[in-house]
Amino acid sequence: MSAADLARLQFAATTGIHWLFVILTMGLVPLVAIMHTRAALTRDPAVRTTRERMARFWGQLYVVNYAVGIATGLVMEFQFGLSWSGSSKFAGNVFGAPLALETLIAFFAESTFLGMWIFGWGRLRRGVHVTLIWLVALTAYASAYWIMVANGFLQHPVGHEVRDGAAYLTDFGALLTNDSALVALLHVALGAFTTGGVFVAGVSAWHFLRHTTETRLFRESLRLGLWVSTVASFFVVVVGEMQRPVIAATQPMKEAVIRGSGVAELQEQLVREHGPGNYVPWEETVRFSMDTMTLIGNTVSTITLIALVLVWKDRVVRWRPVAWVLVAMIPLPFLASVGGWVVRELGRQPWLVYGELTVEDALSNVGRGSLLVSCVAFIALFVALAVTNWTLITRFVRKGPDAVQLGAVEPLPEGGPGGEGKQPVATY
Question: Where are the transmembrane segments (predicted)?
Fold first, then answer.
């Protein structure tokens, strides 16, 4: 493998693994917010307690995934300087702005609100506490917006001019309203909702297969997960098709590869426009990823709709084969979303900034040996983090709500902090 191939493999593998953390984080947080809101609005003490335990159970899984995923996100930033310094030299003035805003505004705010929510159980008023988890959800999607703005510039560079071999931002509004970013963001958000809903429904079904005694908690979780995933999986397919005209207008070669026609003609056109070179991405890989994503999307949409109908009179709970299908379906949205990113990123090759900077030109002046070592090290680290994450999630899932540590504090008395000389002590 060449140095460029190693750098691409490293970035593709680490980004793909990082995305598995991100999509579950984005998918779980709105569901946890809904659960917490329902608990806060419930007047019946027994039902409210169950719903609070439900929010804490799923919230703990969210926190574990978020915490481990942060490490993969931090490592991602270094790769631009280590392997792709050409991208910083050419597009850093434009590409760096949304990344900086994502870090300063969205990520810092999200982490702050999440910390307050984690340690706010038993300390904050219900309204304030619920508001915090919604702020976490809002900032999570704000973070996704800035990332998609940056990625949208790579897909369809707008709002800039090139001077002395470097891009300079001239229209910030055009950058923020880039069609390639906005439509993709909606597609990503709906994919995250689908992933979170399928995860919640699948884990709930697994507990029913184990004859759980937490029937109210997991019945409500199952219904919420199916409702969210059914609606989201339908619209994610619709929005996916809405991207096709945008792709055809901005990246005709990618659309031709997906469609399977007109590739040769576009290759000749791009040679005339940009000079000699191969402007055709890996056709079979792009088309296979597209077909896989579409097949999984339609399958998940169909199964969740059927399961939602069967939720009536608890048929999903009583019919074990249906519950097993829901459990087996948990990995599918993850696979579909990775397939979508393969289409989006590999389909624009050989460009890093479409039409303006190739991958080869963006590569740092790093030796093949150094890239081989960093590639193996980064991939091994990310795989280890992914295994750790899912081991912890599986362990907490198996233990169930009774073993939840999130919010395991001694609540504050009505009169204020302290009470009889006691301070609440967090155990998570």
Answer: 16-36, 57-76, 96-120, 132-154, 181-209, 221-240, 292-312, 324-343, 371-392
